Prior knowledge:
Blueprint: E1 4-5, E2 10-12, H1 30-37, H2 44-47, H3 53-69, E3 73-75, E4 81-90, E5 93-105, H4 108-111, E6 114-115, H5 122-135, E7 137-138, E8 142-146, H6 152-160, E9 167-170, E10 176-182, H7 185-195, E11 200-204, H8 206-219, E12 226-233, E13 240-243, E14 245-248, H9 253-259, E15 261-265, H10 268-277, E16 284-287, E17 291-295, H11 306-312, E18 323-326, H12 329-339, E19 342-346, H13 351-361, E20 369-372, E21 382-383
Parallel strand pairs: 6-11, 8-12
Antiparallel strand pairs: 1-5, 2-3, 4-5, 4-10, 5-12, 7-21, 8-11, 9-10, 13-20, 14-18, 14-19, 15-17, 16-17, 16-19
Helix pairs in contact: 3-5, 5-8, 6-7
Amino acid sequence: xxxxxxxxxxxxxxxxxxxxxxxxxxxxxxxxxxxxxxxxxxxxxxxxxxxxxxxxxxxxxxxxxxxxxxxxxxxxxxxxxxxxxxxxxxxxxxxxxxxxxxxxxxxxxxxxxxxxxxxxxxxxxxxxxxxxxxxxxxxxxxxxxxxxxxxxxxxxxxxxxxxxxxxxxxxxxxxxxxxxxxxxxxxxxxxxxxxxxxxxxxxxxxxxxxxxxxxxxxxxxxxxxxxxxxxxxxxxxxxxxxxxxxxxxxxxxxxxxxxxxxxxxxxxxxxxxxxxxxxxxxxxxxxxxxxxxxxxxxxxxxxxxxxxxxxxxxxxxxxxxxxxxxxxxxxxxxxxxxxxxxxxxxxxxxxxxxxxxxxxxxxxxxxxxxxxxxxxxxxxxxxxxx
Length: 386
């Protein structure tokens, strides 16, 4: 059973989050980090502090302590869920996603209800573990998706949003946030009950969830048995999952020709449209001396997703340091051209397909999905020792 519970959040004292929000640590490029660090109270000072090695983690711990002492942050007096509404644009259309922040169980029993779908890497896990041990705070939430067939969770969230928001702000990416505290016993009970029998798919934050499990197993410390999580019903109309395209620093056209039938297109946009229309589950796009749709033999991967086929075949010999990732196909093509390599475009898929793939094969390759938009850091923090 999924273990989602209210928690005593530490929040900015100001209801305006205009200068406070930042993306998760793994999608903050250096130029954005520099810009966000100019904002004295931005969450980047906790999420991705300046410096190297141990000094970085110590800087985050000092910032956390100083912000609590000077009133920048305050810990709520009672446990609560935090209903969150995000308004954003995707493909030129306005969308709204609604979910809530909770403490999600990370102990052995609770983990049985958690469905990860991506492999993780040792280096980012070591980084996040040192940060968690030094600061003692879940700074950024992981992102979970759960089935809500009866609509009970969505009804409870709608009730939570009837009052005045406790915080609002817009991220650097133009996502507008509103947040409400939900601490009424009837509301917290309804959300807890709605989630209890549901498996939780990790949409984003696989490294942080694994780190929380390791930290709990090693320390058994109070508060370490859970992790800050943003949870969204699978049926929410604003839930969007995008493919994550690959930009490889090596040319792949000849390898693609030997493993798939290729058709040429005039532009990235035309290639994207053809890729979305293709009935071949392992179809892929390739930007390398032209724009190509690749369609391999549709067999051989139990997941039924192109990312598994690509990892086994076209990208099997590409080193991790030769690859970068983005949901923007045109950006992937530009990156590949600058590197004199290849951009590999991944076929779109649904949340249901991701669930089926995880059930069939377990973990998919790293960066298989991109749930858009990333949930911002800074809405609320979860101290392990409030």
